[in-house]
Predict the 3D structure of the following.
Amino acid sequence: MRAPALCTVLPSSALLAKQSATAAPRRGAVLVALYEEGTRPENALEFVKASLGAPTAAEAAAREAEARVLREQLTAAHAELEGLRAKLAGLGVFVQPAES
């Protein structure tokens, strides 16, 4: 009877190069890439994040700013909608509120 394997074989950097840029890396592939990196990155966590496709700090800040603007626009649109509903109610027109 064979003894169970104590470790798994991870893909080599040549195999990683063949993978599609949009394909999710296989488990452990990022760690192999980190190990095989010629020069050690200053921050291993940032290297792993970048390898997995996480947004950079600048991209995350831009997305937060965009989300903030969109929330403000949504709030303004809701206020305008309520104002228009009030006008219609003043004219005697019943408007059923939309479900949230």
